[in-house]
Amino acid sequence: MMKKALITGGAGFIGSHLAKSLLEKGYSVVIVDNFNEYYDSQLKRDRISKILNGLDFKLYELDICNLKELKSVFEKEKIDIICHLAAQAGVRYSIDNPFVYEKSNVLGTLNILELSKDYGVEKIVFASSSSVYGNSNKEYFSEEDDTSSPVSLYAATKKATEVICHSYHTLYDIPMIGLRYFTVYGPYGRPDMALFKFTDAIIKGEPIDVFGDGKMERSFTYIDDIVSGTIKAMESDFFWEIFNLGSKPVSLLSLIEEIEKNAKKKSEKVFMPIQKGDVLRTSADISKAKNLLDWEPKTSIDVGVSNFVNWYRQYYSI
């Protein structure tokens, strides 16, 4: 019999796609999500109704910061494995709303770990972020690099997640794998991310703000590749590991060119200085994931952006 997986943040971008793949593989899936208003919650509801259409899963609408409500899920469901994706995302939002991050990313994680210990969860895979590397000047960011100098509160709370998870792993022998995701994109992606914002503005004929003179680079990683890496981590036998899941770096200007090509429209660019908390470049060294998980990204940026723009047109009936 396949295992029962709890996905926290299961109505999120990565969570909903992961749920679909796990269900199709025969897993029993339980989703917890609070459908918060950080961005349009209708998109989250549509992920559940459209991506998971016709599939059989359990959904609990609750906040992982509410220990009592979360405990009731663990009491009702015999959870074998957790993929902990629920977190307050966004670098810029963390500057104005720091306490939301402390609560969701730190307290929420602590609640998950306490209940995992109490209810005998076999394994936890948790989401970290490329942001933990801060403003690294290395060509490729390796899991061995120093991550003690985050440049945003969001990054600091993701680093805190890693450290707190490691303490519970050590204390209670719970196998755990942390995944440092690098700029995930694709259909049903987050509206606060560059690809979504740029596509939206270009199709509507509005100017776009391009930070860091457009030279900023990100390891844009397609959602299907992230899901496959996450499942490989869930199905591996490691006791404790951290893995980068990322793709080749692409500059903002190259990303914009791909969107323009697919939208068949030119953009009006407003060049802006780099924003507080942003890093100039993210670049994933994925040799560890290649060697130990047999994982590497398969989707090129041109295919990924084309898929996203096609989805965008369809979703908004353009």
Describe this entry's structure for a reader.
The model has no long low-confidence stretch (mean pLDDT 96). The longest helix is centred in the middle third of the chain and has 21 residues, at 98-118. This protein has a 7-stranded parallel sheet with strand order 3-2-1-4-5-6-11, with helices on both faces. The protein has a two-stranded parallel ribbon with strand order 7-10. The chain has 11 helices and 13 strands. It has 318 residues and is an alpha/beta fold. The protein has one domain: 3-Layer(aba) Sandwich (Rossmann fold).
> Could you tell me how far the N terminus lies from the C terminus, measured between alpha carbons in angstroms?
44 Å
**What's the rounded overall pLDDT mean?**
96
| Cα shape | globular
The amount of helix comes to: 40-55%
CATH superfamily: NAD(P)-binding Rossmann-like Domain
Q: Tell me the CATH architecture.
A: 3-Layer(aba) Sandwich
Please trace the helix and strand order, writing H or E for each element.
Answer: EHEHEHEHHEHEEHEEEHEEHEHH
Q: Provide the spatial order of strands within the biggest beta sheet.
A: 3-2-1-4-5-6-11
> Proportion of β residues?
15-25%
Care to count the β-strands? 13
CATH class: Alpha Beta
Poorly predicted runs: none
Q: What is the CA-based Rg, rounded?
A: 19 Å
Summarize the main sheet: 7 strands, parallel
- The assigned structural class equals alpha/beta
Instruction: Determine the CATH topology.
Output: Rossmann fold
Overall tally of structural domains: 1
Number of helices: 11
